[in-house]
Amino acid sequence: MSSTREKIAQAADTLFYEQGFEATSFADIAGAVGISRGNFYHHFKTKDEILDAVIDRRIAKTKGMMETWDAQGQTPLDRIGCFIRILIRNRAKITQFGCPVGSLVSELGKLNHVSQSRANALFSMFGDWLAEQFQEMGCDAPTALRHARHLLARSQGVATLSQALQDDEFIDGEVVLMLDYAAAAASEFTQEGN
Amino acid sequence: MSSTREKIAQAADTLFYEQGFEATSFADIAGAVGISRGNFYHHFKTKDEILDAVIDRRIAKTKGMMETWDAQGQTPLDRIGCFIRILIRNRAKITQFGCPVGSLVSELGKLNHVSQSRANALFSMFGDWLAEQFQEMGCDAPTALRHARHLLARSQGVATLSQALQDDEFIDGEVVLMLDYAAAAASEFTQEGN
DNA sequence: GATGATATAGGACAGATGTCCTAGGGCGCG
DNA sequence: CGCGCCCTAGGACATCTGTCCTATATCATC
To answer: Is CATH 1.10.357.10 the right assignment for the domain spanning A55-193?
Structure first.
């Protein structure tokens, strides 16, 4: 099967993250993959098609992560912890380039790009998944959504600020606070005496 | 004095915020100001010079805001509240284009731009000012810095997420939580019985 | 009114960009 | 072998970019 198409999408994914969508040219991607510039047309008609493929990749990758977390975490609190800890796992890249989702959404928003809503869907995926966890904990639906969005916003802020400060260690402290927040939400529904 | 130069910087400021630095061309700025494209060279040698002028403007505007807050707020907590409430004052623009500071820093970071550090200084200004307030409250220096960065990150996250969700109202709830956070930090140093 | 500095318009310039076309290579199938 | 199909390379293309030049307009000063 067309492995070249996949390689293009993969290279574009990385470059869009590290340089931005607008700042990444066909030539950049061609150089990264090692194919000729004109050859692109056979796999992707336009740059927007590449963007769509990249978003598809990210959606798939996100789904995969969530499945892993679902399998790995015993309790909702454990699973939420998995989400929070992405910040630590990707610490170096986040400090350098920010959050892949957040920065893409921000850029596409400014460009008034057609695929803006598809990128925003990535946020919704995280939001919905987090809300599910809080509901399983015992929260009612609106509270769960509130908690979910709150954590999502916190993680975005940590990413942006660690990039601005160029400070790895800032992430660690904030992760602890976010875990505390989730734990506090959970403790409302557990036995006091435990 | 050269009012044209000022008008260019002002138009560029707006356009860099709403479209991004890279995506804004000389032609865009010229169109917005209503002057010819070639005329730019007389006022700014390069696009980077315009960016520097824009950052200067923002630094000056930020200083002005802080002076206003210093004069307006009676207590450190009041003044911190002024900062937090920018989110509400600029709600509509933030929902559409995100935070001007955060998105510029993010973009310049990805472009590895020379002026990246000058843009980051904008963050430091807010951070230092907030830390001062927390110190006046009674916090020791490291704690004050921690609180300051925490609030800065929170506000960034709120901006990013409200843009992604296209949701005005999300901001209001988060602002309340941030005010609570500041109040809790302050209450440590006030009389219990008050 | 003449002079000179400053501001402006218009366009030239090379390079890059996204898009598209064409010619040929490699390979399976009849 | 010969046909047809997918893949690739290389380059054409119009357009846009940032930069820069030159000729003209504006205006204060003498």
So the answer is: yes
